[in-house]
Amino acid sequence: MSGRATEDLLIVGAGGFAREAAQAVRDAGAADAARGRPARWRLAGHLDDDPVLHGAEVDGVPVLGGCGLVHELPAARVVVCVGSPRDYAVRARLVRRLELPADRYATVVHPAAAVSASSVVGPGSVLLAHCVLTAAVRVGSHVAVMPQVVLTHDDTVGDFATLASGVRLGGGVRVGCGAYVGAGALVREGAAIGAWSLTGMGSTVLADVPAGQVWAGSPARLLRPAGAAALAELARAAGPPGGAAADGPEQEAPGRAPAAAHGRQEGAGPSGPRPRTRMESPVV
User: Fold this and answer.
1) For residue 244, what pLDDT band results from cuts at 50, 70 and 90?
2) Which DSSP symbol is given to 53?
3) 130 Cβ contact partners less than 8 Å away, ≥ 6 residues apart
4) CA distance linking residue 45 with residue 57, whole number of Å
5) Of 26, 214, 252, 268, whose Cβ has the fewest other Cβ atoms within 10 Å?
6) pTM value?
7) CA 263 → CA 14, 33, 103, distances in Å?
8) Residue 69, SS3 per DSSP
9) Are strands 150-151 and 41-47 parallel, antiparallel or unpaired?
C-alpha cells in the first residue's frame, strides 16, 4: 500500500451527504499521513447541477460546475453522494445518467469504520465514521452507510440502498436495492427489507417489509406506498408487462445497465456473487 498513487476524487453533489463524504476523505488523508503513506484520494471538488453553487466553496471545497464535468475530467475517480428521504431514488437516476464505467467509481470508507476482511463493499459506496461490518457482510454499489451503522454477520445490502445513522441489522438481514432504512431503525435477524421501500426512523422491524412500501413504528407496520420516484424505480426494475416481477430484496438494481456502468459483476445484487472490491484496509 505504501507505493500506491494518490488519485483525484470528484464528489457528485454538494449537500449534506456530499459534505460528510468530503470530510471522510479528509479524515482518511490525515490517517494516511499519520501512517507515513500517501493519501488515497486528493479531493478535487464537488460537482452539482445547481448553477448558484458553481464557483463557490462548500466547507472549503470548490464546486467546480455541473455533474457533466465528470466526462471532462476522465482521470478523476467519482462518488455520487445525493439523496434524502424525500427522494432516495435520485442517486440511481444520476448514476444511470452519468453512464460511467466501473473503474471510474471510488469506494470511500472513513478510517474510523471497522470493516472485516471477510466483508466486501461495492464501488461508489460510502461508509462514514464508526460503521461496523462484522463478518461476511456484502454491501453493493452506490450504497450510503451513515455513522454508527452496525451490519452483522451475513447481512446483504443491495445497490443504491441508504442506511441512515444508527441503523442496526441483525444477522442475515437482506436489504433490497434502493431501500431507505431510517435513522435508529432496528431490524430483526433474517428479515428482508424490500427494494425501494422506506423504513421510518426509530422503527423496530420484526417482519419482512415488502418492496415499494413505507413502514414505521415499533413494531413497524405499513403506513402507505412509497413515493412516486421510488415506485418508478421499482417498476423500471420489473421490466415490461409480462416480465419477471421485481418483488423483494433479491431483485436486480433498478434500471441495471451492463455491469461496467454500475461497477458490479453481473448478478451481483444481494443474491448474486460478491463484488470484487475487497476491504483489505481501512480505506479503499
Assistant:
1) very low
2) G
3) 110, 112, 113, 114, 147, 148
4) 9
5) 26
6) 0.84
7) 23, 29, 7
8) helix
9) unpaired
Residue 71: active-site member: no
223/32 Cα distance (integer angstroms): 46
Whether the Cβ atoms of residue 141 and residue 262 lie closer than 8 Å to each other: yes
Q: Which residue in 46, 110, 142, 153 is the catalytic one?
A: 153
- Residue 179, amino acid: A
Paired sense of beta strands 180-181 and 198-199, if any: parallel
DSSP one-letter string for 127-187: E-TT-EE-SS-EE-SS-EE-TT-EE-TT-EE-TT-EE-TT-EE-TT-EE-TT-EE-TT-EE
Residue 221, strand partner residues: 216
Who contacts 111 (Cβ-Cβ below 8 Å, separation ≥6)?
Answer: 27, 28, 31, 282, 283
Q: End-to-end CA distance of the chain: give it in Å, rounded.
A: 10
State the pairing for strand pair 220-225/186-187: unpaired
Please give the grid coordinates belonging to residue 68. Answer: 457533466
Q: What is the pLDDT of residues 35-84, one digit of tens each?
A: 999 999 999 999 999 999 999 999 999 999 999 999 999 999 999 999 99
How does DSSP assign 9-42, residue by residue?
A: EEEE--SHHHHHHHHHHHHHHHHHHHTTS--SEE
Q: Is-contact 258 247, C-beta < 8 A?
A: no
Taking a C-beta distance cutoff of 8 angstroms, is the pair 172, 154 a contact? yes
